[in-house]
TrEMBL record:
The keyword Protease does not apply. This is Chondroadherin-like protein. Residues 333-345 have a biased composition (Basic and acidic residues). It comes from Oreocharis arfaki (tit berrypecker). GO terms for cellular component: extracellular matrix; extracellular space. Residues 349-360 have a biased composition (Pro residues). Potential negative modulator of chondrocyte differentiation. Inhibits collagen fibrillogenesis in vitro. May influence chondrocyte's differentiation by acting on its cellular collagenous microenvironment.
């Protein structure tokens, strides 16, 4: 049968609309109702996108903020891709009107906080991808309008804490991905509202114990990933998940597992305990349905102490993978090859079993809510936002976890400002005209993890202001009046992970400024006036992973200051006036660096040896919008996933031929164009004819597109292209 009349009318309407309104520099596919505006310089969502568009791809632009009602003109969208758009904020109501949207990708942006109405209007959304942002906190209710969501991807963010009921409203969610965060606190009701969840990924976090109380709410989950967490012990009946079949606890720090640890998970079939510190296991009598246990990479002591476990394996017909590490006579022997008489005891003693830490009593929350405020007993959430209060109210319920005091003119935070709030985890004091945080202001907030002081008038801080808040991990001081980093202010914060000092007026990073911040992982200093970083300024932060310095006044790469940062994986130097880049400038961090931002600097020359030491670990390199005409050899950058070379005036002569050959082999869109000579200006490097006269042209060009031929004439046969990855253009 032919296409329906409705479809023909839709296509015809789209064709007319798209032809008339397709915004530059976008490409509109009328037949498929797709619009692509890739890797451009758009600063706002185009308002001339055809109304009937179904799929909109805006990857690689620079929106910063998605304002309220940004897509009201395109109500038929089903797929929206906003990856790598430098988005930092989603205004409340940003996606209103997109009731048909089923797929939203916001990966690799700079979103730090999800508010309650940030995702309002997405009633049909099925997949939400927020991977690779810097989300530190999710407010309860943020996902309340996403009743159709089946996959939620929050990997590689900066989450430390999940409050109770944070995922309320996700009634059909099947897979929740929380890997690669810094989670170490989970509310007991964090997963209480996920009746359809089947898979939970919590690997690569900071959980020090199995969060059994929170996981017990997941009656239907069949797979749980907890690998790469510093969990040392699994206690009796620690896991009560009625449907769990696959449990991954690999690459943790396990030293012991209780015999009845999995007795309340009767469906468990596969238990992965690879790469731990286990010298043995007791018979896991409670796990009656277990079929396979993986113990590879553990220092198994195959003495008589292992006989009960070995006997249980045979009796329960459980397949075990693993090999003996000791005694020497049995080293390397697989568990299934052992005979009981071989497992002897000499003078060997078992390692001590860690004890289960006692549970801490929880404070009762019986006090009423202060006047002019709203308290939610279900969420343990108090709010006095924008109530024109001049003094911080008191007498909140003692079990309050999140307190929102934004937009009140407090001007100062006095000592003991928050009495009785021992369970408070998140405190919001943004836009409160605060000039002074007095010593002892946070005294008693022993559970505080997040403190937001953005958009105030702070110019200095004393360490005593943080007295009594030793677990503070996220401190946001963006948009204040600091002219220098408050030296020594962080010495009472041993658990500080993330420090935001963006958009202040800091001119220098001096030695001693970060004393005490020994656990710091993410340092955000964008949008200041930093001209100099002392060689020892970053020395206290040996665990630093992200350093963001974009939009400052640096005139050279701070190579000396990068020494002693063995974990640094991301460095942003964008929008600094660095004109020349010398030899080996990234050598101190070459063994760990994965993401390097060197765009929009006016860079004129890069030394041939500037990237010495860098290689396969580099995953993304941003060099767009600079002024150099050539770049160093990067043929050993074999792990690249993103390479951006747009708006660089390459001189397309024979000296550029090696670069042309290299990027032609990449399966990446890199955006390289010629700036000279005149006959090649504006052409993609791949299509320039200036290389035809180069010595050696033709060697290595076999199978490549000849720039002089038409697309039809140069199209290789399927046989010739077999087994090769086609270049996607650059």
């Amino acid at each position: 049968m032919g296409p329906s009349w409705g479809l023909l009318m839709f296509t015809a309407a789209l064709g007319v609309t798209a032809a008339a309104r397709c915004p530059a520099p976008c490409v509109c596919d009328n037949l498929r109702a797709h619009v692509l505006c890739l890797n451009g310089s758009l600063l706002a969502i185009p308002d001339t996108i055809p109304e009937l568009t179904k799929k909109l791809d805006l990857r690689g632009n620079s929106f910063m903020v998605i304002p309220a009602g940004a897509f009201l003109a395109t109500p038929y969208l089903t797929h929206l891709d906003l990856q790598r758009c430098k988005v930092e904020r989603l205004e409340e109501g940003a996606f209103r009107g997109l009731g048909r949207l089923v797929y939203l990708n916001l990966a690799s942006n700079g979103i730090a906080l999800l508010y309650q109405e940030s995702l309002d209007g997405l009633s049909s959304l099925q997949q939400l991808i927020l991977e690779g942002n810097r989300i530190e906190e999710i407010q309860p209710g943020a996902f309340g309008h996403l009743g159709s969501l089946t996959v939620l991807d929050l990997r590689a963010n900066a989450l430390v804490y999940l409050p109770d009921m944070v995922f309320q409203g996700l009634q059909v969610l099947r897979w929740l991905r929380l890997s690669h965060n810094a989670l170490h606190v989970l509310g007991s009701e964090a997963f209480a509202a996920l009746p359809a969840l089947r898979r939970l990924s919590l690997d690569h976090n900071e959980l020090q114990a199995l969060p059994g109380e929170a996981l017990a709410r997941l009656d239907g989950a069949t797979r749980l990933d907890l690998g790469h967490n510093p969990i040392t012990y699994v206690a009796e009946e620690a896991l009560a998940m009625a449907s769990l079949r696959h449990l991954f606890l690999d690459h943790a720090s396990l030293q012991d597992v209780a015999p009845d640890a999995f007795a309340r998970s009767p469906q468990l079939r596969v238990l992965d305990l690879r790469e731990n510190q286990l010298q043995g296991l007791p018979p896991l009598a409670g796990a009656g349905g277990l079929a396979r246990v993986s113990l590879d990479g553990n220092p198994l002591l195959c003495s008589c102490l292992l006989r009960p476990f070995h006997k249980w394996l045979a009796r329960a017909r459980v397949q075990a993978e693993g090999a003996c590490a000791a005694p020497p006579a049995l080293r390397g022997r697989s568990l299934d090859s052992l005979k009981p008489p071989e497992m002897r005891c000499g003078r060997l003693r078992p390692p001590p079993s860690p004890t289960t830490p006692p549970e801490q009593p929880r404070a009762a929350g019986s006090r009423p809510c202060p006047r002019a405020c709203v308290c939610s007993p279900d969420f343990h959430h108090g709010s006095c936002e924008n109530r024109h209060l001049r003094e911080i109210p008191q007498d909140f319920p003692g079990n309050t976890r999140l307190l929102d005091l934004r937009r009140n003119p407090f001007s100062t935070v006095p000592p003991d400002a928050f009495p009785g709030l021992k369970e408070l985890v998140s405190l919001h004091l943004q836009s409160c005209s605060i000039r002074v945080l007095q010593p002892g202001a946070l005294r008693g907030l022993e559970s505080l993890v997040y403190l937001y002081l953005t958009n105030n008038h702070l110019s200095t801080l004393a360490a005593a202001a943080f007295e009594g808040a030793p677990h503070l991990a996220y401190l946001d001081l963006d948009h204040n009046a600091f002219t220098r980093v408050p030296a020594g202010a962080f010495r009472l914060l041993p658990n500080l992970i993330s420090l935001h000092l963006q958009h202040n007026a800091i001119e220098e990073l001096a030695e001693g400024d970060l004393v005490g911040a020994r656990g710091l992982r993410w340092l955000y200093l964008a949008g200041n006036a930093i001209r100099h970083i002392a060689p020892a300024a970053l020395a206290p932060t040996k665990m630093l992973e992200k350093l963001q310095l974009e939009g400052n006044h640096l005139s050279e790469v701070p190579t000396a200051a990068l020494r002693g940062l063995p974990a640094l994986s991301e460095l942003k130097l964008s929008r600094n006036p660095i004109k020349h880049m010398g030899h080996s400038v990234f050598l101190p961090v070459a063994s760990s660096l994965q993401h390097l931002y060197l765009d929009n600097m006016g860079l004129e020359r890069i030394s041939p040896h500037a990237f010495t030491g860098l290689g396969p670990k580099i995953r993304s390199l941003y060099l767009q919008s600079n002024k150099m005409s050539n770049i160093p050899d990067m043929s050993n950058f074999t792990g690249l996933e993103i390479l951006s070379l747009q708006d660089v005036p390459f001189h397309c002569d024979c000296q550029l031929l090696p670069l042309r050959r290299w990027i032609n082999k990449l399966n990446l869109r890199v955006g390289a164009t010629c700036g000279s000579p005149a006959e090649a200006r504006g052409l993609k490097v791949k299509l320039s004819t200036t290389f035809l006269a180069c010595p050696g042209w033709g060697r290595g060009e076999a199978g490549e597109t000849n720039p002089n031929k038409t697309k039809a004439a140069s199209k290789p046969s399927k046989k010739k292209r077999s087994g090769k990855s086609p270049a996607r253009g650059f």
